[in-house]
Every structure is written in C-alpha cells, then in structure tokens.
Design brief:
The radius of gyration is 28 Å and the shape is elongated. The chain has 7 helices and 6 strands. The model has no long low-confidence stretch (mean pLDDT 92). Helices cover 65% and strands 7% of the residues. The protein is mainly alpha-helical.
Length: 211
C-alpha cells in the first residue's frame, strides 16, 4: 500500500509538471496571437481612460459652491449619465453637469479641470437639451436638444481629451431617446408618490380617534 501511494504521488507530480509546461507553452503562444494582444491593449487603454474620466468627475464635484448675494449656495455635482453606458456616460455627464457652472468664474474653473473649452461646454450643453424632471409637486417638461450637432461636438471632445477607446459610436440616437424616456418615467413616478403622500396626509387629517 505504501509503495502504491509513493508511485501515485510520483505520477501526480509528473502530471502536474507536464500540465505546467503545457500551460507555459499556451501562454507563450498567446504572445503571437494578434487578436489577443489587441484585446488586452484595448482593455488596458480603456481602463486608463475610464479612470481619468472618473477622476475628472470627482474634481468637478469638488469645485467650491457658488454663493449668491442672498446666501444661497449652488454646488456642482458631476456624475455619469448611465443611459449612455460606461465611458460615454461620463463624457455626457461632464457636459450635462457644466450647466451648474452658470457664472463665469465657475465655468472657467470647470473648463480648466475638464479640458473642454467654455464655448464647447456651452454649445454642447445647449445641444444636449434637458430631460423632464420632478419639482415642487409637478413634472417639468424636458427640452429636446440637437442630436446631430451634439454628436459632432462630442466627437471633437473625444479627440481633444485623447479618448481613443471610447468611440463616438457609443453615442446613439437610441440611447439619447432612452435617456429622455427614463427621466420622464422617473419624474412621473415621483409625481405619483407625491400625490399618494398628499392623499395619505389628507386622510390622516380626516381621521378622528374615538375613545
């Protein structure tokens, strides 16, 4: 029995050694596989671009709030627009959030951090339009932008920001329309929740607790 175990262990060790050698050869072969190398290059490059965009959004959100004469503070909250997917969503988010930098000094700071000129931000934000949203018990209608103009502006922005793995093909009419549809649905849902809460409060006022 002991002899069997020894032989078995030797066979297992040899099999493992052969497996490692085969794996090493397979890995070496991948180095000559152009498709594999290109895939790895693209993934690595895109990861770097996504990290840079994430850092930019964080820096934009850290811009000190604008304080109006009446004491009100207006902060900038830059975040990706998920309807456009990873990467392009961040680019659109940078454009959309630039509307919060509505005074010259904040826009200059925003442009410096984002790497996009004030004029490009202004024109892109206008072309982007504004989806519907809920405010103060009502749904504020959205304003559809100029998709074609926006697409052209974004293509230029991608080039200037050295974003080569994020393609303009990621910005589609379907995703643009989806963004507006999702926003409208969210606003309508918030309105219904508000109306339901009002009904609940009204019913509570009419309720009389009897001893």
């Amino acid at each position: 029995m002991a002899n069997f175990k020894t032989k078995l262990e030797n066979r297992i060790a040899k099999a493992q050694e052969a497996k490692v050698i085969a794996q090493d050869k397979a890995l070496e072969a991948l180095l000559d596989n152009d498709t594999f190398i290109e895939t790895q290059r693209s993934v690595t490059a895109k990861e770097a671009e996504l990290t840079a965009l994430s850092d930019t959004l964080a820096q934009l959100s850290s811009i000190a709030p604008y304080v109006a004469k009446d004491g009100r503070k207006f902060s900038i909250k830059a975040f990706p627009v998920s309807a456009f997917g990873i990467g392009m969503g961040s680019v659109v988010g940078i454009i959309a959030s630039s509307k919060s930098a509505f005074v010259d000094e904040k826009m200059m700071e925003y442009a410096a951090i984002s790497g996009i000129t004030s004029l490009e931000l202004y024109e892109s934000a206008n072309a982007l339009g504004s989806p519907a949203y809920y405010k103060d018990g009502k749904v504020v209608d959205g304003t559809v932008g100029d998709y074609t103009l926006l697409r052209n502006l974004i293509e230029g922005i991608l080039i200037k920001l050295n974003l080569h793995e994020i393609s303009i093909n990621d910005f589609t009419r379907e995703k643009y329309d989806l963004w507006f549809a999702l926003a409208e649905n969210r606003a309508e849902k918030q309105l219904k929740e508000h109306e339901a809460l009002q009904d609940l409060e009204a019913n509570a006022e009419d309720f009389v607790l009897e001893d």
